[in-house]
Every structure is written in C-alpha cells, then in structure tokens.
Amino acid sequence: MIRLAFASLANRKSSAWLTILAIAVSALLLIGVERVRTQTQDNFANTISGTDLIVGARTGSTQLLLSSVFHIGALNNSMTWQSYTHIKELPGVAWNIPMALGDSFSGYPVVGTNEDFFKHFKYASEAALEFAAGRVFNADEHAVLGAEVAQRMQLNVGDEFTIAHGSGGISFSDHDAHPFQVTGILQRTGTPVDQAIYIPLAGLGLVHGELIQDDNDDSHDHEHEHADTEQQPVYTLSAVLLGLDNRALALRMQRQINTYREEPLSAIMPGLALTDLWRTLSLFEKALFTVSILVVATGLLGMLTALLASLRERRREMAVLRSIGAGPFTIFGLLVSEAFMLALAGVSIGVLMLFAVLHFGADWLLLHTGLLLRATPLTITEWSLVGAILVAAILLSFIPAWRAYRNALADGLTIRL
Amino acid sequence: MPGTCIELKQLEFQWPGATQPLLRIPELQISRGERVLLRGASGSGKSTLLSLIAGIHKAKAQQVFVLDHDLGDMSQRQRDKLRANEIGYIFQQFNLLPYLSAYQNVLLAQQFSPARRQRLNAQQSSHKQQAQNLLLQLGLTESDTERPAHQLSVGQQQRVAAARALFGSPALIIADEPTSALDADHRDNFIQILFEACRANNTTLLFVTHDASLAPHFDRAIELADINTGSGGWS
Q1: Membrane spanning segments where (chain B) (predicted)?
Q2: Contact (CB, 8 A) for A162 and A177
Q3: Per-residue pLDDT for A230 more than 60?
Q4: Looking at this predicted complex, what is its ipTM?
Q5: pLDDT digit string, tens, across residues B4-26
Q6: Is A287 exposed, middle or buried (0-12, 13-18, 19+ CB in 10 A)?
Q7: Residues of B at the A interface (Cβ-Cβ below 8 Å)?
Q8: Closest chain A residue to the Cα of B47, Cα to Cα
Q9: CA angle B82, B85, B87 (to 5 degrees)
Q10: What are the domain boundaries of chain B?
Q11: Cβ within 8 Å, pair A413-B51
Q12: B34-59+75-226: what fold?
C-alpha cells in the first residue's frame, strides 16, 4: 500500500514537492529556532563560571551582571578603591579580579584589570583562558586582545594601537591618545571575552589621567597609609569578581558586602543573576518559538489543502481501488500514509537543510551575528519536535482520510467526475 | 456446469430517505459459467443492483447470494474480501490508475486478494509474466504492456481493464457498460475477446448495458424492467 501511495504521489509530483518544501522550511525554522535557543542559552550560561560573587556599586543585579560580564551598558556608579582594598582583604576571599570599564576602542569594550584576570577568570565548565599568541601584559601600556577583536581589527602580537579617552575630562598627561602594544591574543571562547580588550588598571589610569606617575607623585594625596607599597592606579572600579575559599560562604559574604557601611555596594551571585536575566529574555525566545510553531502549522495546513484538493480528482482512483477489493480502511490508510510520507520527506529535508546551514554557515554566523551554533546531532528535544511534526501531520491527514473513507463508502463503484 | 453464481431472492432495496424501494426483484438466478446480458435504461437501478452484487452496499439477509455466500450476512470486510478474490469489475471507462503501467494495473488485481495470488502461484511463471501474457492474449503488444496507462487508447485501456478483471481467475466478472466508450468495431472485438477469456476460465459474466443490440452474443438477456417491480422499474 505504501508503494501505491508512493506511485500516486509521484503522479502528483509538483504539488507533492511544493508540500514537501513547505514542510521542510517550517521544520528547518522550528528546529533552527530551538537550536539557537538552547545553544544560546548554553553559551549564555557559559559566559562565566567559578566566580562566586560579583561586587559593584549599589545597582540592580542585571545591570551589574551585564556590565561586568557582558560589557553591555554603562554603570552610573562605581566603587572606590578603598572599598576594593577592604573587600579583597575580607576573610574567606581566595582571589579577586578588579575591573574598570567604560572605555571602548572601535566599539570594543576596554577592560582595565590585572593579571589575576587571566589566572582566575573561568568560563564554560571551569575552563581557564588560554593564549592563542603572546602572553599576559607586564607593563602599563600593554594590552591583551580577545580573539574576535584581534581578527576583526587585524592586530597581531607586537602591533600598536591607540586608545583615546574621548570624554574630554581633565587630563594630566600631555596626550589624549595613548599607544598600547599588543602582548597577547586570547583563544576564542565563544563568550564576551572574545570581544574585549584587556589592559592593566595602571594603563587605564594613564588614559584617564588618574594615574600619577612617579615623577609627580607628591602632588597627589594618598588617603590610606598602608597603600604606600601599592600605588592606587585608578580612583574607582566598576566591579570586582570574587572567588571564595568556600563556595557555601557566598550567601553570608553577599550579605556582609551588601551591608557595608562605608559605601553602598551590591554583591550578586553570577549563576542566579544569569538565570534571572535569561528569564527576562525568554519572552523573546517564546515569541520566536511561537512564530515558528505557526510556520509549521502553515506548512501542515498547506499539506492538508493539497490532500483535500486532490481528493476530488482521485475519486476515480478510489473507485478503481474499491473495485479490486480495497476496503474503505485501506483508502483511509492510503491517505494517511501519503501524508506521512510527505511529512517525513519534508522534515528530513528540513533537518538536512539545517545541518547544511550549520555546517557551512557556522563561521559566517559567528562572525556576523556572534551566534555560536554547532552541527551537533539532534537532541532529545529536537527529536521530539520532529516527532511532533510527524504526529501532527498524521492527525491532520485524518481529515482528508475520513473524507475519502466516506466518499469510498458512498460512491462505491460509481465514478463521479 | 453445476452451481449457482448469483442468486437473488425476494430482493428489496431502498436508499435511506426514499419512500419506496428502488429494487424489488422476486427472483433471479445466474449459473456458474453463464454469460448474461442485463439491460436497463439509466436510472433503472442497474448500478445499485451491481453494487449490491459486488458487495459495496449491503442488502438484507437472505436476499443476495454470490457463490453461495449470503452477502446480507457478511461484514464490510468480508464482502470486500469476497470481491477481491472472486469478482472482477470492469467500468465504463477510466478503469486504470494512470500512473501505473498496463501490466502494473493488471497486477493490482492480486494486491488485496490472497486467493488470486494463490491461483497465480500455481502457475509456473511469475505474476508479471502472467499479467503480460494475459495482455498479449487480449491483443496488446509487448511494448504496450510497459506503457503508462494514460498513454493507451480507450480501446486498449478497456482491454487492460478486462485483463485485470480476469487476472487470477475470479469466478465472476461484472462489466458495467464496458463498451459504451468504444466504436462499433472495437466493441464487437472487445466482446469477442472477453467471451473467449471467460470461456477458457469458465468464468461467469454479468454484462450490463443499455444497448439491446448486443443481446444475440449472450446465453441469456435479461431486461431489468421485466424482473424489477420496484420504483426503478417504472422509469
């Protein structure tokens, strides 16, 4: 019977192919959206790991997370250097990464930090940053580039570029533009690290004119006595990433920092904040998913239309089949198997198209949209979407199949044209 | 030849919603191997009678017997099975699935019929070979048997239809105005061929037409209006 259904479909090639194409495109879209969603979520969750607390001036957790991890948006407030020195000395703090944000170079965020960043920052499943070329900065005017920055700006280790502090603030230095030398380029991580430029805090201080170099040290008044050995490179920090000796203490430490009396501070746990942020983004994700469900429905309705339209011209065929002893249920099954074949072919072609796009377009997508998608085998969710399309196709085909069944019973052997 | 192929006893049939029965036939018997012409004007209930005999529609119990089966007492499935196994049906036209070749159309006859397959298996040659032989007997050329049905002339299509009806040696062939789309020459030729094939297999032939001039070819000619006292008989 499958053979008959197949031969009959082959007889209606053009409408069959159009139906298959419609289903293929809708399957491509549905599974593509699902893949973008899950892999984006994975990439998203992979942006930071191993950090127990992020500390900044009092602000919302999403804002602090966005600026410190994604380098999106500007923080209105910053925390003072004194607070930083207080926090990093708190008992239980294993390591810290200071971050000063707010500048950019050709649209890429410039992050002032220290060498601890390269030692302690982890992404994905506790993966450490690695250098594709060069090494950590060890002078004020050195810089380390994220993979994408280096690629797009065509900078190599040893090249120089200038960071201009465009705010027009009071500058103690002679030049507004400071040349920096690239000492290292990081391996691609698929996280915002790829799109950032890392320079020493002191380097940022130079750009901002906050760092008072040794020759005019006297003109600046140090407020804290014990900092004599360590010069204060910038006035303020945007955020500090903290690693604790014992992760279980994060909650208590968070409270301790949130209630710090000298200055209003916020401490957030990156995992929770990421989940919160993702939840706000899930509205778009749901909208996207809904649209692709609607596209699938359109594709399947197209199939339904094609099958229903074909019934009229196939009454002759049905009468012939009835005359050779095919029961009405066989006619029913014929239409269901036709729909199943159309849907199966459509979904298979759709999945193949998806893999073709992922395989050949992944680099382009990453470069132009920052979407990191991989042509990995279908996940269980994706398989169940495929299954859902097939099941929906079969259920929908019950409508024309039922019509054909009724026709077969009523027409019998008379051929109505 | 002993045995009855078709037997009607006090048949009364009326469509749902009709005020009086379309068919009321006190008695009709057709023996095995007999070739019978059934004549009736259109609207006289011919098609309804054929669909009752073919088991498409269901008569009441004890009214229609085919090969000693009481069709009124059989399920839809059983009647479909009986038709697949023992009844070959030829339509006026458009008998074939246009997308299959001539011989594939003939092979369709055994698709739903284990009995026909069994009878075909008793022969030495393959099913395809037997289908092609039958088509050659009915006057198609070797190359015609491989051509898609829609490329054949109407006369050739009717022969393929006859071959499909005969394939696997069913006991009864019902031909519903099979020659009305053919011109006179082709018509006589087709009837001759059909007769020969039926004689060779001792197949009962129920040939329905509105054309009384064909009567001399047959063992017996029945006028539907003569035996039917239902409403169909008045038209």
Answers
A1: none
A2: yes
A3: no
A4: 0.85
A5: 888 888 888 888 888 888 888 88
A6: exposed
A7: 47, 50-51, 54, 56-57, 76-77, 80-81, 83-85, 89, 91-92, 94-100, 108-109, 111-113, 164, 176
A8: A414
A9: 80
A10: 34-59+75-226
A11: yes
A12: Rossmann fold (3.40.50)
